[in-house]
Amino acid sequence: MKKRDIEKGNGSPSLDSLSQSELDNDSANAGIETKPQPRYRRWLASLRNVETRGIERVPPEEREQVTASTTLHMMLMWFSMALATNNIIVGSMGTLVLGLRFKDAALCAVFGNLVGSCTVGYMSTWGPRSGNRTLIVARYFMGYYPSKVCCLLNVFTNLGYCMVNGVVGGQILSKVSGGHLSVLVGIAIVAFISWIMAMFGMRIFQIYERFAWLPQLMVLCIMLGSAGPRFDFNTYVESTPLILNAKRVSFFSLCLSVALSWAPLAADYYVYYPAHVKRWRTFAVTVLGGGQAMVITLLLGVGMGTVMVSSPTYAVKYGTSPGGLLMTAYDSLGGFGKFCAVINVLAQVANNTPGVYSMGMNFQMLGGFFQKVPRPVFTTISTIIYTACAMGGRNSLYQIFKSFLPLIGYWVVIWIAIVVEEDVLFRRKSGYDWTAWNNPQKLPKGIAAGVSFLIGWAGAILGMDQAYYSGVVAHLTGGADLGLWMGAGFAAMAYPGLRLLELSLVGR
């Protein structure tokens, strides 16, 4: 596709726009078929700004020019996506659920998020380099077949996050209506709007996110002005030093997991960036945009948790659900507060849509039959599944957060440890053939990565501390959730030796 066609907004590049030489190359090396496009793709291609491309690599000649304006738009997109209401709920867990002081919880939130955001920034740099989606890039590290496990895990990750977003949005709408609108109907509304956005693809979504951040940020400032004077900086639950440190580690890991959940999606938003874009630029845009937004919402949540702990009357008035927590912030604002709460629901949509969009991609990455099914079909099925789960789990959201978020972090951090070591230790000189993204014969076997992944999980199980299971090491440390750290450590120690053995025996 010519650059002027992209600038006119005539949709994202599709396979129809590839040159014959590119098609021949990809047919030989990547297994892409050159037959005429299905009717649904031709129809989508006729719509303005609708993305028709699936998981196929974006070749260099179809990339867009990156200007100061596009860089700013990308930063605003990350800021908008991460400025999510559910992060406020996670932040409140430090003071409301774990009983930490404001200072302890705030420090854990800031530094945990900083580490996680840097990880997301690193993964985002693979988009311009390769032109491939994040979990397509995973094939170059995990191997063609083992990488499918990551795709399935990311489907479950996004299903869980979308479920949480749906419940929070549904509870807010129910509280705003004074109970006249049920939580179930509220969940359905959030899911439907997210589905519409995800169906049209990344282009429409990016346009929406460029502007969605402004009302969200204004509402959060109003929330801070309304609830900030009631923050209690001294309230906490008495505990021994061992248990206190365990709570700090657990909350640090929880906040780290919030950011880590973006890592398997990070490169997806940069596949139309040219390969010559500096890696530090992509990294900085991602960290500054997403990291700032998550810190703002997490800290606001930490403060809101202290309000609920120190003022039980609010718990009686609004309940202890996440929706009740948010309505507490607008307690003195009357009808205007309800209007602000509705804006918070739009923030849930902005945070929800990327996950719904990526689930369709993840299913196609499984290959075979799944690759032939149109992305909108998987988007629709995923929406139905997480909506049903949200309706069933609407009364247990805090427990879902506490148990679900760390599980995301476990697999993501193990996978990232393998990615970093493969890139630094084994691929620094040899480089990558990005046109071989769909050719198992040209990709690593993935034996070393697969075994290291399992070893990493063994470490995570030893260190995890959840309601349903507590590992041996977690018991010895007073209940600290060390699953993230032990999972990454075990995988990092196992992978180099196993990879050297694999290269000597297999050669790739």
TrEMBL record:
<feature type="transmembrane region" description="Helical">
    <location>
        <begin position="212"/>
        <end position="231"/>
    </location>
</feature>
<feature type="transmembrane region" description="Helical">
    <location>
        <begin position="76"/>
        <end position="98"/>
    </location>
</feature>
<keyword id="KW-0813">Transport</keyword>
<keyword id="KW-1133">Transmembrane helix</keyword>
<feature type="region of interest" description="Disordered">
    <location>
        <begin position="1"/>
        <end position="35"/>
    </location>
</feature>
<keyword id="KW-0472">Membrane</keyword>
<keyword id="KW-0597">Phosphoprotein</keyword>
<dbReference type="GO" id="GO:0000329">
    <property type="term" value="C:fungal-type vacuole membrane"/>
</dbReference>
<feature type="compositionally biased region" description="Polar residues">
    <location>
        <begin position="11"/>
        <end position="28"/>
    </location>
</feature>
<protein>
    <recommendedName>
        <fullName>Purine-cytosine permease</fullName>
    </recommendedName>
</protein>
<keyword id="KW-0812">Transmembrane</keyword>
<feature type="transmembrane region" description="Helical">
    <location>
        <begin position="181"/>
        <end position="200"/>
    </location>
</feature>
<feature type="transmembrane region" description="Helical">
    <location>
        <begin position="105"/>
        <end position="124"/>
    </location>
</feature>
<feature type="transmembrane region" description="Helical">
    <location>
        <begin position="446"/>
        <end position="464"/>
    </location>
</feature>
<dbReference type="InterPro" id="IPR026030">
    <property type="entry name" value="Pur-cyt_permease_Fcy2/21/22"/>
</dbReference>
<feature type="transmembrane region" description="Helical">
    <location>
        <begin position="484"/>
        <end position="501"/>
    </location>
</feature>
<comment type="similarity">
    <text>Belongs to the purine-cytosine permease (2.A.39) family.</text>
</comment>
<dbReference type="GO" id="GO:0015851">
    <property type="term" value="P:nucleobase transport"/>
</dbReference>
<dbReference type="GO" id="GO:0022857">
    <property type="term" value="F:transmembrane transporter activity"/>
</dbReference>
<dbReference type="InterPro" id="IPR001248">
    <property type="entry name" value="Pur-cyt_permease"/>
</dbReference>
<feature type="transmembrane region" description="Helical">
    <location>
        <begin position="283"/>
        <end position="304"/>
    </location>
</feature>
<feature type="transmembrane region" description="Helical">
    <location>
        <begin position="251"/>
        <end position="271"/>
    </location>
</feature>
<feature type="transmembrane region" description="Helical">
    <location>
        <begin position="404"/>
        <end position="425"/>
    </location>
</feature>
<dbReference type="GO" id="GO:0005886">
    <property type="term" value="C:plasma membrane"/>
</dbReference>
<dbReference type="Pfam" id="PF02133">
    <property type="entry name" value="Transp_cyt_pur"/>
</dbReference>
